[in-house]
Write a structure and sequence with these properties.
- It is built from 3 helices and 4 strands, in the order E-H-E-E-H-H-E.
- With about 100 residues, the protein is α+β, with helices and mostly antiparallel strands.
- The radius of gyration is 13 Å and the shape is globular.
């Protein structure tokens, strides 16, 4: 399982727009082939920082999403709201305790 972590910083005045867009598109993203989980986190100290965590069956599934019309639409609407360059990591889950 591949975990994709994306860190995004937003101009304060753009946060509500981002949250509304995320709310509108989250189910479509989650239902992308190979996507097993989608989560959104907000920074505690810096309320302009958000993280998405998405779990994918494979790198191929993630790449198919990243090349999809859905991603291109979501990303084109989101990237204009940033106050800094986003950061992203693809990692392998090693251990998970619940």
């Amino acid at each position: 399982m591949l975990v994709r972590i994306v860190k995004m910083g937003f101009h304060p005045e753009n946060i509500e727009t981002f949250l509304a867009d995320f709310e509108e598109k989250k189910e479509y993203i989650r239902k992308s082939p190979g996507c097993r989980l989608l989560e959104l986190y907000k920074g505690q100290q810096d309320k302009t920082i958000f993280f998405t965590y998405s779990y994918w069956d494979s790198e191929e599934d993630l790449n198919n999403y990243r090349n999809s019309k859905l991603f291109k639409d979501v990303w084109s609407r989101t990237k204009v709201l940033f106050n800094k360059k986003p950061e992203a990591w693809s990692v392998d889950k090693v251990v998970s305790l619940q």
